[in-house]
Amino acid sequence: MTTTLRPAGPEDRRDDGGRARTYEVCVNSRPVGRITLATDARLGLSAGRIADLHIDERDRHRGRGTVAALAAEEVLRGWGCRRISVDVPADAEPALRLAAALGYTEHSRRMLKELTAPPGLPAGSAVRPLGAEEYPAWLTAAVTTYVEAKVGNGMPRERAERNAAEDHATLLPDGPATAHQSLRVLAHEGTDVGTVWTTTYHPARPGGYVMDVRVEPEHRGRGHGRTLMLVAERETLDAGRTVLGLNVYVDNPRARGLYETLGYRPTIYSLHKLLL
């Protein structure tokens, strides 16, 4: 039997050159599932992704998904892509095993924590809002951190810089006074040691989300990162939200370890693979 991809409709072309298309997964011309492919709007036209892959229940465990995923690589190569990515739910063990067998590796993971009561802060810790006069310096540092993280994980620098400027302008149009955005400074025994940015409303995510957490270099290794995460929990609960999410890159095991000890669990694994 032969498994192939058959276009399920016309290709969607964007003004910036991006493209997307849904295909039927067929076995001897019989549809057994669907797969949607697209270029990655964040990474650029040389990066593709599997936006969705579904195999009908009765046709699972027969290698259909494996062949469809391999065929997807050929389609994306034809589009000029040099990298393919896919987001897999943390509880989708068969899909994670398939991805690993096909050579995908973890790029980052989204994590989530259910919140109950506001946590206490260590003795000597004090929290205050980021002042308007402090915002320009904070923004410069936040954008720099964003850009370097994205470049380090495969995004072209020009696109990373553009995305950083657009994202911060969209999410923080009024700076530290923007509604649903919490910018807080942590001081320890009278000295500012770090900042945390928590958004308490996002249309695409439940609850709060940690957008940026940063401890000043000279104050690292003293537990202030943990305290800043507790501040994010308090801000989220104060806004009436009961879950807090974040994203952590695979090359930051120290941060991931901190989040795990604080009770965060993975919800989505972002995986990628180079197309050779």
Key terms:
276 residues, alpha+beta, Aminopeptidase, 2 domains, 13-stranded mixed beta sheet, 6 helices
Q: What's the layout of helices and strands?
A:
Blueprint: E1 3-7, E2 12-13, E3 19-27, E4 30-40, E5 44-55, H1 64-78, E6 83-89, H2 93-101, E7 105-114, E8 125-129, H3 135-152, H4 157-171, E9 181-188, E10 191-199, E11 208-215, H5 224-238, E12 243-249, H6 253-261, E13 265-274
Indicate the proportion of strand residues.
35-45%
Radius of gyration: 21 Å
At the first level of CATH, what is the class of the largest domain? Answer: Alpha Beta
Number of domains: 2
- Number of beta strands: 13
Question: How do the SSEs run, as a string of H and E?
Answer: EEEEEHEHEEHHEEEHEHE
Mean pLDDT: 94
Assembly state of the chains shown: single chain
Tally of alpha and pi helices: 6
Q: Which geometry do the CA atoms define?
A: elongated
Q: Could you tell me how far the N terminus lies from the C terminus, measured between alpha carbons in angstroms?
A: 27 Å
Instruction: Please summarize the sheet with the most strands.
Output: 13 strands, mixed
SS-based class: alpha+beta
CATH evolutionary superfamily of the largest domain: Gcn5-related N-acetyltransferase (GNAT)
Do you know the CATH architecture of the largest domain? 3-Layer(aba) Sandwich
Low-confidence stretches: none
Task: Predict the CATH topology of the largest domain.
Answer: Aminopeptidase
